[in-house]
Amino acid sequence: MTRLPPQAGERIDRSRELSFWFRGRPVRAFGGDTFGSALYAAGQRVFSRSFKYHRPRGLLCCSGGCANCMMTVDGTPNVRVCVEPVREGARVEPQNVVGSLDRDLLSVVDRVGGPFTPVGFYYRTMIRPRRFWPYYERFLRNVAGLGRVDKHGDRKNRYDTEHRSVDVLVVGGGRSGMRAARAAAERGAEVVVVDENPSREHPDGLELIAPATAIGVYEGGLVPVDAGSVLIRFRAGRIVVATGTLDQPLVFGGNDLVGVMLPSGVRRLVRDYALKPGERAVVIAGDDRALECVDDLLAAGVDVLEVVDFRERRVSALEASGRRGRVESVTIDGRRLECDLLVASGGPQPAYSLLAQAGATVTFDAQRGIFVPTELPVGVEAVGRVAGNLGNVGVPHASYGDGTSAKCFVCTCEDVTEKDVKRALAEGFDSLELVKRYTTVTMGPCQGRLCHLASIRLHARERELDAAAVGTTTARPPWAPVKLGLLAGRGHEPAKRTSIHHRHKEAGATMMWTGVWRRPYAYGDASAEVANVHDAVGVIDVSTLGKLLVLGADAASFLERLYPNRFADLKEGRVRYGVLSTDAGRIIDDGTVARLGDDSFYVTTTSTGAEGVLEWFEWWNAVWHMDVEIFNVTGALAAVNVAGPRARELLGRLTSADVSADGLKYLDARQAHVAGVPCLILRIGFVGELGYELHFPSVYGEFLWDTLLGYGADLGVKPFGLEAQRILRLEKQHIIVGQDTDSESNALSANMPWIVKFDKDDFVGKWALAQVEEHGDRERLVGFEMANGAVPLEGGQIVVDGRPAGRVTSSRRSAKLGRSIGLAWVPPAQAREDAPLEIRVDGRLEPARVRLRPFFDPEGERLRS
Amino acid sequence: MNELAFLSPDDAQDDGFAPRAASPLARALAGSEIVDLSLRGKLEVRGSVDEIDVDADVIPITPERALVVCDPGRVGTLRPRLPGLVVDVTAALAGIEVEGEPLMRRVTDLALDRLPAAAKVGDVAALVARDGNRFRIFFPQEYGDSVVATVRDAQEGLR
Q1: How do beta strands A245-247 and A326-332 pair?
Q2: Which residues contact residue A149 at a Cβ distance below 8 angstroms, ignoring those fewer than 6 apart?
Q3: What is the CATH T-level fold of the domain A13-115, as seen in this structure?
């Protein structure tokens, strides 16, 4: 009978019975049991098969520190069942097994594969022929490794992120941690304690979060804590680390057999879960705390055959033997003892990893053979055993193997043996970090908790160095395994939507991303939308345009310095197009500037450029110290472009303002009420037809949109989307910054020499543009039309005299023009009207001709009408 | 109309059209107990915050910058009484009022005992003010659906 009579302080609640499924069979458990303890009580001894050799593995630490008990629970792989509380009806399956845990067909690798699978074999023995590597890799991934993620899992688990600020965060709820927490609380600090183990009782006046694991310490006192389904990101004024120590395994032949356990694991089985860990035991350890487990074993009725304290008795050789992966005997210096449980400890190692991540210095204590934290950073404290308060601790040998017998595992997670480490050193990987990367020792699920010290000891012995000279590897988060889902959190992606967005959705628009904005691509047939703008009137939501107010006595001078064209002479109530350049003359954005008053300007930017332009303006304002204030009013204002030959008629129905050709001229800016809504009307025309851009408070977005469509129904008003807008503007050769320009483009080469006023005082980019003017440019942006109906891809290759010579930036079929048109960068020599080009379309070269003037309404008569 | 009148919802007039202002959060908050502050009057003040002397809710952002929140009908009368440059941001900012630190911890990394403050809420730049266990969050209206979705999702996670 494995389950013992009730034990004082046991975690299980015998009055509450649960059951779950293991490999399709029911298993009974008590409340408070873990899947591991319940399975152990049911007689299960083999809990996993090892990573590489498929050796049977049993419970070792019972604290979630090692990989020995990893199983798949309810579809989630790599769950450490020794610490996972039982859930009613859960389904538990072994992993990395073909057959059963007791009879795994892949264990053949352990019996015959050893000579063929030395450390790093996949770098050398399976690389030729190279084309077979994908098959080798697939094979290796199938026979080695851990659990499998179900790609088609239903992702039913929810993970949240929480942010907390506390005065003091105590990591570790043992005696030392709680003592420190109480002391801090008594001084009036807000204290939170996190502990890996389930809480038995709630301490008075303290907040205890358990089970919860601190997975790292970052700058600024940031400590992310894995609390199961919530990742709590603590910002702590002080961090107290009370993580205690970790029992270290000894390295000897057969040290991974089922039945070889750490003292702390044995203690948990007996005390917490009332389980008898064996019948006949041998104990070997070198510190008092580890040896306390003898009392537990005796209390549990285990026959303790021998206790070896290697502080008092020198041991030279140690080996465990058994059949089918289970311990049946242990041989100590030639003396064989038959047993089914070997409790072996290489001593306690302070669990300093979080401290090292925080910046603590870690120093080797030669007398006790361990690393202890010293020189803690400001705001970080270590208390209890993690600080090295361990008393008299014996130092074991690096290994008790004789090199000829059974495998001596240094790292059970990755199946790295003593022989592997020796071989890596012999091959010249002579630093601890290199050995780590070559052998993967310490890189498994335990992240070095149980193998780091052993690998250092072995390294030091083989190279005849002091362990201090070998040093430690870099401590990095995560200190404990953490689910990727927990790190990912809820995954909200902020999106911007205009105040008219839902009207577009209701109208059946196909939406698309432009930057972080959601915009209508089309409401149906984009070609019909284009035709409607040409023939009647269309409305498009352009609320996404960036909108800035530039206010102050120096506002005009400020813009004069920023733009290559003039703004000081811009009259109140007028609009001018502007292109912003970097110091190097490269185009960064474009838009319009309207003068509202002597000291106030309204600047529009591209939809994705608002934040960048705002930063650009503020940066230069900080440099020039001008009397200017800049406000980003992008979201404050909705904007609708009313465009088409009947636009004036529509607008006239909604406002008492004079919107006649003389009353509101092309490039006029006028404030007026439209349908009662205060508007700034800009008479501009990106799409090439008579157009009015209405800018108004966004809370009236839906109202004015509905009103325009309602009052213009008899005029044929219809909404149009981005695709129609792109065709319309292309017909006018209006550029889109970022599509028709790139980080090398300047206003001169982009066919806008008229915008650069070299006779102005200095402006941003003037010197660079003057260089272009003097030395010429490498390419020019031109329009082109195809000789046939082919539509080249955007990004398509321009070919001149059989050689690549440029690229297409925009291209569309224009139904209005009855031909395919586009914009392209070409060599300056080709930038002349009617110059021949060839453009690669579907692998063929198709003829095209350069067009330097707008394809549609080249004189702008419709625009200015 | 003054130069910046087109920014003010308050400047709307009937003209026979009866213009209706709509909260950008109207749909997102449907069926929710979250209080919508989007249509409250909001003025951004760039001037000495110490000199602000009006009977309205003043949320300081920096010593030289503040958000004044008031009844929407008072924007016009308050504006000339405020120091420095004043811009009507009523339509620029959406706002909500929610209850409880646990919820706020799930949507922002702000230190909740040091409010008001500007920081991100649901990955969106926001201004957060506190009154007891209630929190007012103001953010760009174009992110309204995203912020409300995040907040409502966080509420769901706490149930």
Answers
A1: unpaired
A2: A77
A3: Ubiquitin-like (UB roll) (3.10.20)
Beta carbons of A676 and B85 less than 8 Å apart: no
Backbone angles phi, psi at B102, to 5 degrees: -55, -40
- For residue A237, what is the nearest residue in chain B, using CA coordinates? B111
**Strand A318-323's sheet: what is its strand order?**
A318-323, A326-332, A335-338
Phi-psi region of A170 (alpha: psi -120 to 50; beta: other; left: phi over 0): beta
Task: Determine how β-strand A230-241 pairs with β-strand A222-226.
Answer: antiparallel
The CATH homologous superfamily of the domain defined by A778-864: Aminomethyltransferase beta-barrel domains (2.40.30.110)
Parse chain A into domains and list their residue ranges: 13-115, 254-345, 546-633+748-775, 778-864
Write the residue in B27, B122, B157 that is nearest to A502 by C-beta.
B27
- pLDDT tens for chain B, 159 residues: list them: 688 999 999 999 998 999 999 999 999 999 999 999 999 999 999 999 999 999 999 999 999 999 999 999 999 999 999 999 999 999 999 999 999 999 999 999 999 988 999 999 999 999 999 999 999 999 999 999 999 999 999 999 998
Residues in contact with A176: Cβ distance below 8 Å, sequence separation at least 6, in sequence order: A242, A244, A383, A384, A385
Question: Between chains, do A676 and B14 touch, taking CB under 8 Å as contact?
Answer: yes
- ipTM of the modeled complex: 0.97
The domain in which residue B118 lies consists of: 25-38+92-159
Q: pTM, whole model, 2 decimals?
A: 0.87
A254-345 to CATH, choices 3.50.50.60, 3.40.640.10, 1.10.1130.10, 3.30.870.10: 3.50.50.60
Rounded Cα distance, A523 and A520, in Å: 7
- CATH 3.30.70.1400 fits domain A546-633+748-775: yes
Tell me the chain A residues in contact with residue B108 when contact means C-beta distances shorter than 8 Å.
163
